[in-house]
């Protein structure tokens, strides 16, 4: 502890000296920014604030599904935390949405012999009746096999897709498999299925199924849908190879049509261009099975930790840094609510970025188009290379679910890519708990976020102009 | 497949040639045994029979808690398997015991804020009433801290011990922690506690609690007891550090006093000394949460696979090899039932060994006292060294729960020690499923078991005499 404090004192001294040297006429501003951003990055590597944030959130609040009393507690907790850390303009912006609340859920093999199955309902699934649905299964090893099934061919069946999700550092395995969960229920229903199960979109092999939202299509009946734990999906593959299998499925979720949620906001006001906004955030809501440590306690902690460090500088950056803790990401509502509420401000948002990919280290930063090779990109590269991260030559295409609508409205976005090799081991499961976070990797992520955020708010970079030049 | 068959043909030829050379007067018997045991061991390394056995058992039967219909199905399944594989004298030996059957089980933090807890009842725990027990917790970081608590000091409290279990290849971490589960409930009750929870005896960090049997003491009130998943135990440690915590616990198990179980037996009759018995086995019953793949489907598969390979030789070994698949190990009933039923046969059992430590490779074989340095020990070492295993210079102290009573009655026992570094990640949890078995490691274990069993049944070794010489 004393060692850590010692490091902090030295680093603070460096930061002060770097800031102090701003008055020297023989030094370029970019050299000052470089020194300050580098010092902040080093400081982040031993700053416990982000881990403390997610530890407190997951311990004192726990799960916080949007629409539940727990999420409301989380909102009050977050406001108090932001105020205590010195943020300005701390407030919560309300919106309403249809909240989906998990109920009883169970499944069992009825024939050839009784066996319990570990399942969990997909977010948005309709309920079965209290007795559930019992039917024979039709099992497909790939999603394309299901799509190739003829209309009506699944009449009266429970359709099951057991396609494996690929482990990939950049999350591309999840992206590729996502339609199996999102669209599978409606595709199965179009072919006559009465319910739908999929092998969890996860890279683990535990009896802990992965939840996640589905999207019913308008041209298909709505059928109940759930995920199987990976070992259970494999068990069904083996049993289905031996003969007919019957399953009973009970799902009893409910929906509250006009539930309340809030996007929680805190700011560091810019000292020269306060109307120009660098927006960073994560989402405060979580799924209900675990305590939302990596999804997305870690992301909120990263945004909080990065902004807090910048706020501790002797002098504020030129632009305003706005931290937004979104309030209903998992069911895709908070980003739209935020974009709608801030329509008039779109032009003022210099850049937006959301941390929503776990607690791993950042290995690559994707900037808006045209920025990677710019002075800004090179400056950022000099700061983050010693932290173990690169500026990616490819531009950011997706900054996060909650800033998708801002991006569509014209806001430049960045993507700070975290190592996700193990992220989908616990993503959306009961296993998403604090022990899955490595504090040192989290601190590295905060360091890169701090550098990116500080430079975006200080350097005067105009991402829109870089993008138009790049075209 | 054709490659595998090719290997089999070559190995069979070697085995036949080794057996054929028995008639050559210039060859010592031990050299023949060495050649045959080595060939059998090599053959085991590509023999799918053991994995097929455990795959079928866990897929077509699944969980098989003693006293349930599923276990009865497993007994019929096992008899049919043994007969189909050519075993003789296949039968099941019945016994009665008090069967403990899991019921509803749930726990939640009530205060400071509601949170779900992942728990599972300990085997043998009494039930709470339907509404459960709600009380403040008294949390101890080590078991000794609990033992140091004064009588009456836990009055009205739910006692919780969160001591960590150590990961160790030889299972010593489990041995050291075992009293926390076995004796903790009564020790807590003596001090006034109304219920007992422990951090799971496991080396994982998943939301899958580890069950296992408790042993109530006669001089303490019986209180309900359950295991917490590791992340939940850690959550309670963090919350307890912040202030009082209240929990509600509901456990609804039942007991069937005169339930039936069976020890399933199959033999390869010895061709010279059929009354002398080499007894190997595993236990067919499992806990109810997973499918009992590593505990102890793997053990039954190892014993089956080893004996089956020996049975495929052109000529039977001198002594009888008896495979016993015990029927109520998890609650400690089948070993006593077996020893009692076979009292008159104790002197005929040359050696007994049980495979009940997962599906890992065997790295060390502990023989009865005096045998490690004997001709038998050296012969075995020559066969298993190429397989990656050693004869341990230390004698076997514990051969397995089901042969403990045989050992007490004078039967020499051996312990074929499997690598258990990862065994307690899934032991006694819902995660004990087929995917946790690495077929190649299982095959290596079968190879060492085959060598040990063959040499014990062929060489005429007298372990009792070696033990008395060693004294």
Automatic annotation (TrEMBL), chains A, B:
Highest rank taxon of the organism: Bacteria
Entry's Gene Ontology molecular function annotations: carboxypeptidase activity; metal ion binding; metallodipeptidase activity
Peptidase M28 domain: residues covered: 263-452
Q: What is its main location?
A: endoplasmic reticulum
Which keywords are on file for this protein?
Carboxypeptidase, Endoplasmic reticulum, Glycoprotein, Golgi apparatus, Hydrolase, Lysosome, Metal-binding, Metalloprotease, Protease, Secreted, Signal, Zinc, Zymogen
Signal peptide per UniProt:
1-24
A single GO CC term for this protein reads: lysosome
- Keyword Zinc applies: yes
Its subcellular locations are: Endoplasmic reticulum; Golgi apparatus; Lysosome; Secreted
One Gene Ontology BP term is: proteolysis
Query: Pfam families this protein is in?
Result: Peptidase_M28
The cross-references to Gene3D superfamilies, in alphabetical order and at most eight, read:
3.50.30.30, Zn peptidases
UniProt xrefs under InterPro entries: CPQ, Peptidase_M28
Its subunit composition reads:
Homodimer. The monomeric form is inactive while the homodimer is active.
Query: What name does the UniProt record give this protein?
Result: Carboxypeptidase Q
Instruction: Output the lineage of the source organism.
Output: Bacteria, Pseudomonadati, Pseudomonadota, Alphaproteobacteria, Hyphomicrobiales
């Amino acid at each position: 502890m004393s060692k850590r404090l010692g490091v902090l004192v030295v680093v603070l001294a460096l930061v002060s000296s770097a800031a102090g040297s701003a008055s020297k006429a023989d030094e370029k501003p970019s050299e000052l920014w470089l020194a300050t951003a580098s010092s902040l990055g080093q400081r982040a590597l031993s700053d416990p604030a982000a881990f403390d944030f997610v530890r407190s959130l997951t311990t004192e609040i726990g799960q916080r599904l949007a629409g539940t009393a727990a999420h409301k507690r989380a909102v009050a907790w977050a406001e108090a935390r932001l105020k205590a850390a010195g943020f300005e303009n701390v407030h919560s912006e309300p919106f309403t949405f249809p909240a989906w609340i998990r109920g009883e859920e169970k499944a069992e093999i009825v024939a050839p012999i009784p066996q319990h199955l570990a399942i969990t309902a997909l977010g948005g699934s309709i309920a079965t009746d209290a007795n559930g649905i019992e039917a024979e299964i039709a099992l497909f090893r790939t999603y394309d096999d299901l799509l190739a099934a003829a209309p009506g061919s699944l009449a009266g069946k429970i359709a099951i897709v057991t396609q494996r999700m690929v482990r990939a550092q950049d999350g591309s395995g999840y992206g590729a498999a996502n339609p199996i969960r999102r669209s599978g229920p409606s595709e199965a229903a179009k072919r006559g299925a009465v319910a739908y199960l999929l092998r969890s979109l996860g890279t683990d092999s535990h009896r802990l199924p992965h939840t996640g939202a589905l999207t019913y299509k308008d041209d298909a009946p709505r059928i109940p849908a759930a995920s199987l734990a990976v070992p259970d999906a494999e068990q069904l593959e083996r049993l289905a190879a031996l003969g007919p299998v019957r399953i009973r499925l009970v799902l009893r979720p409910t929906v509250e049509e006009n539930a309340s949620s809030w996007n929680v906001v805190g700011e560091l006001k810019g000292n020269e261009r306060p109307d120009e906004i660098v927006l960073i955030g994560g989402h405060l809501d979580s799924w209900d099975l675990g305590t939302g440590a990596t999804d997305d306690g870690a992301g909120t902690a990263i945004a909080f930790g990065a902004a807090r460090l910048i706020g501790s500088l002797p002098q504020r950056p030129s632009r305003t840094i706005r931290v937004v803790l979104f309030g209903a990401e998992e069911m895709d509502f908070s980003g739209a609510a935020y974009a709608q509420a801030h329509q008039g401000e779109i032009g003022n948002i210099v850049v937006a970025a959301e941390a929503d990919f776990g607690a791993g280290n950042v290995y690559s930063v994707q900037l808006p188009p045209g920025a990677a090779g710019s002075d800004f990109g090179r400056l950022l590269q000099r700061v983050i290379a010693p932290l173990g991260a690169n500026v990616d030559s490819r531009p950011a295409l997706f900054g996060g679910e909650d800033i998708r609508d801002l991006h569509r409205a014209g806001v430049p976005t960045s993507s700070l890519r975290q190592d996700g090799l193990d992220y989908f081991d616990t993503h959306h499961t009961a296993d998403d708990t604090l022990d899955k976070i490595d504090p040192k990797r989290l601190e590295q992520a905060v360091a890169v976020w701090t550098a990116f955020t500080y430079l975006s708010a200080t350097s005067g970079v105009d991402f829109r102009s870089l993008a138009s030049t790049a075209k």
